[in-house]
Amino acid sequence: MDKLSRSFIEYVGRISVRVVTMTGSVVRSVYHVAAYLFAFNPNHSRKEVTELYPDPVSSRTADDLPPRSRGFIKNDPDVCTGCLDCAKICPVDCILIESEKIETMQKEWITVFDVDQLKCIRCGLCVEVCPSGSLTHTRSYEGAVYGLNQLVQHFGKGEPPRKGTAEW
Question: Residue 87: which pLDDT band, with cuts at 50, 70 and 90?
Fold first, then answer.
């Protein structure tokens, strides 16, 4: 082979290496552009990361919620003993209890039992510590109100009966 054909072969080899290198970078570029377009395309069919709670499609009522879901706190004043354990254990002090001992009946009369649902973090400590089981979590979780004072729920019985009144 002469010198001219040898240099032509080297030249073609260098060009082919450049073409292969350029083809690889073009393929990589097309891959990255396609991945970008599919990732940010709103019509792309991939699973959403953020899910609404409760799911608006399957949860139409409070009964559709998971079995251990915690809604608002509710107290049954007829069962409540007035021991103040729930108010003591509450980490945010959302429970206010005032009681009065009625000596003729040997019971505590719950005059004030207020639960501030705005402060409540629904930790469930008060429900767990209640010895009488009067505190429960309801299945209600929507608290849309016009005034913040409407989120304070009153479960007290009011003033206790005095001597001579009917038994409660």
Answer: very high
What's the length of the chain? 168
CATH code: domain of residue 98: 3.30.70.3270
Give the C-alpha separation, 69 to 90, whole Å: 19
What's the token pair of residue 50?
A: 């953020």
pLDDT at 23 over 70: no
Tell me, yes or no, whether 164 lies in a domain.
Answer: no
Domain that holds residue 95: 67-154
Number of domains in the chain: 1
Calculate the CA 83 to chain-centre distance. Answer: 30
Is 42:93 a contact under the CB 8 Å cutoff?
Answer: no
Question: What one-character-per-residue DSSP string does 94-161 give?
Answer: -EEEEEEEETTTTEEEEEEEEEETTT-----HHHHH-SS--EEE-S------SSGGGGEEE----SPP
The answer to whether residue 127 scores a pLDDT higher than 80 is yes
**Long-range contacts formed by 57-62: CB under 8 A, 24+ apart:** 62/138, 62/139, 62/140, 62/141
